[in-house]
Amino acid sequence: MFLSLKSIELSGFKSFGKKSELVFTSPIASIVGPNGSGKSNVAEAFRFVLGEQSMKSMRSKKGEDLIWGGSPAMARANRASVKVTFDNSPGPSGTRLLDIDFNEVVVERVVYRDGQNEYLLNGSQVRLKDVIRLLAGANIGGSGYQIISQGEADRILNASPRERREMVEDALGLKLYQHKKAESEKKLEETGINIDKTRSLRREIAPHLNFLRSQVEKIEKAREMKEELAAKMHEYLSRENAYITQEDARLLDEARDYDQQIKILALQADEMRARRGIKTEASEVEVTILENKLSQSRQEAARLERELGRAEGALEVNTVTIEQIVPVPHVRQFIRDIEAEIAHVEQSDDIGAVRTVLASVRGKIKSFIEGLTGSAPETNEEARLQVESLARQLKEAQEGERIAAHDVQTVRAKIAAARDATFAAEREVVEIEGKLREARSRLAAVQNERSQLAGLRERFEEEIREGITLIGAAIHGWNKTEIPQGALSEDRNVQEKRRREIERLKIKIEESGISNGDTIVKEFKNTKERDEFLAKELIDLERSAASLEDIIVDLERTIDVRFTDGLAHINTALHEFFAKLFGGGEAKLFVEKPKHASKSNFDEDGDEIEEVPDEDELYAGLSISVTLPRKKMHGLEVLSGGERALTSIALIFSMSQVNPPPFLILDETDAALDEANSKRYADMIRELGAKSQLIVITHNRATMAAAGELYGVTMGSDGVSKLLSVKFEEAAKVAK
User: Fold this and answer.
1) Which residues of the chain, if any, have pLDDT below 70?
2) In terms of DSSP bridges, do strands 117-121 and 20-23 run parallel, antiparallel, or are they unpaired?
3) How far is residue 673's CA from residue 682's CA, in Å, rounded to a whole number?
């Protein structure tokens, strides 16, 4: 037979102050010893390591009571540990006892004096739940029918129908299903709580979500307006930029042209002013000098003429009469000269020349008269020589006068020409300055237009900034907008109309009050995603709840089916064991009908209120019917102590036959049997040993004889339990 339980090791547990180990090599192992030696502590050690939580079941009040308390010979321990080793090698079918991929599994539980417990699986710390689930999968539990301690043999008889059913379900291996059901019910409860929380969260965020949705709708409208604004601004800005750029280039060219014209005209004006500024002072001085020279020459000529006149007069006086003097050739020539000069004066417009001739005529006449009245040379020869000398000097003086007059005339002509040139230059300067003023006026007008254009550029840039504030980066698309042909030549009023439309659209967007639209949209998106997540989670939770409900229903169905089938098999085995122990008779487990499930009450309005029943009222427990041979009385109440013990044994053995556990621990369950029943008990032990590994704690020799190995427990003066192993042959001798 395959032995699942290899050994158990106790260290500091109750009376086992020192480390003690029991190694099991036989299907039936018997633990014997006198009362008080601590042999029942071995059964409690099994309870402890398999996860028992009831201190009462281990005859203790608190965890510290499980630890070696010390004795005069040995100090107390700070911890107690029990370690059980399972053989988990794959069986003939390839399956393992425990659902874990190890050939040997060591489960250990440690308790400390502060009450803290520690669970280890192959040396690794785990949770109690992990241990219970692992063992439950192998139909191993820490309580119930699997470990029957002294004084508890008839516990199944004394148990309530509900407790009795739980013990039977445990024996049938339904504990794992019940764990799953309990977990599913717990998960279902948690899922229900989560469903309520999720619904509550959705209800909480619904108003805010609706508010955000209305805000987002406004934002969408504002976004549509922004898109419209972006399209209008793209066209407006592209046209405006093109207009400003073109106008600026045109005005810049005009400004450059006017500036060039101004520079040229300024140079021309400077040149004309230079011409106009030619001074005639030097010529005027020269004229003065020449006129002075001419005047001197004239004076000298006049004097010579007077002298000549006087000389000639003197000569005439000496030679001719007055009547003869008149036709004198030089007089007649003198007269002709005067007539010529007068004729010349009459043809001339030059006042200065007229004055000069008149002065000359006056001088000649005066000289002539003075010649007639002046003193004359004493002799004709002297007079003649004087006349000739004076005539020669006069001729030279007249030549000098002529030259001086010519020079004066030449200089005066130059001065007149210079004055004419100055007047012409002055006229040119006036004309150029007029053109210069006009060019400067036009340049100022162009600069004024450029200044206005700069204002348009500033407004243009401000509109871009406003556009960025309203529509963000979308504004930058304006410089990619293609300008239609002929757009630059359109009337500016059309562009101004576009600007007014844009301004109205801006006002609408600003009045919408959606300044942080992206934040609201993001919040709406997050809130909506959270609501959708919660909705999805709610669906998942509801599906999970439905799935858990289905799982619970399936588990309940499985439990019911297995329970019904198992109960039938238990009753079959119970019938056989009971008949063997009592030599007949009958015992049977049957399901009680649930108590009254509910009753109807009525409220103040007369409406029926269905009362929710207590869970215990709905649970169908198990009752036992017993019929002893040769007795007419029925029921557990009529059984004696021995009969109750035999009935309990029959029931426990029957339960173990239906779903045999890997091992059973029986702690002095045969204590109340007489010799005849002890033999029957021993036979039943052998029969059970063929299906389950048994650890039997007993005083009964018949039971000892059924064991394959014996462990003796003794206690010395130090109060520490010690183990002694006895071979089968020695056990047989002791049993006899």
Assistant:
1) 1-2, 142-145, 150-153, 275-284, 317-336, 338-339, 341-355, 357-359, 361-379, 484-486, 488, 513-516, 594-619, 633, 727-736
2) unpaired
3) 11
CA 616 to chain centre: 57
Closest CA to 117 of 89, 90, 148, 142: 142
Which tokens in the block code for residue 533? 């997540």
Tell which residue, 350, 370, 373, 372, has the closest CA to residue 362.
370
Q: Between the CA of residue 663 and those of 10, 28, 142, 659, 660, what are the distances in Å?
A: 18, 10, 12, 11, 8
- Considering only CA atoms, which of 734, 729, 675, 684 is closest in space to residue 704? 734
d(CA 683, CA 696): 13
Of 661, 620, 669, the residue nearest 644 (C-alpha): 669
Give the C-alpha separation, 145 to 173, whole Å. 11
Burial of 97 (0-12, 13-18, 19+ CB in 10 A): buried
Both tokens of residue 532?
A: 């959708």
> What does DSSP say about strands 663-667 and 147-148: parallel, antiparallel, or unpaired?
parallel
Q: Is 8 helix (H, G, I), strand (E, B) or coil?
A: strand
Strands (E), 113-220: 117-121, 124-126, 147-148
Taking a C-beta distance cutoff of 8 angstroms, is the pair 391, 307 a contact? no
Question: What whole-number distance in Å separates Cα of residue 623 and Cα of residue 627?
Answer: 14
| β-pairing verdict for 117-121 and 124-126 | antiparallel
Tokens of 80: 């107690």
The size of the chain, in residues, is 736
Q: Which amino acid is at 310?
A: R
Token pair listed for 678: 């002890």
Distance (Å, rounded) from C-alpha 35 to C-alpha 15? 13
Q: How far apart are CA 133 and CA 486, in angstroms?
A: 88
pLDDT at 9: 97
Can you read off the two tokens belonging to residue 251? 């005005």
Residue 325 is predicted with a pLDDT of 44
Domains recognised in the chain with CATH numbers: 5-153+663-735 (3.40.50.300), 281-446 (no CATH)
Distance between CA atoms of residues 248 and 220, nearest Å: 40
φ, ψ of residue 8 in degrees (nearest 5): -140, 135
How far apart are the C-alpha atoms of 351 and 30, rounded to whole Å?
A: 180
Backbone angles phi, psi at 147, to 5 degrees: -125, 105
pLDDT in tens, 504-553: 888 887 777 665 677 888 888 999 999 998 999 899 999 999 999 999 99
The alpha helices in 8-49, defined as continuous H runs, are 40-49
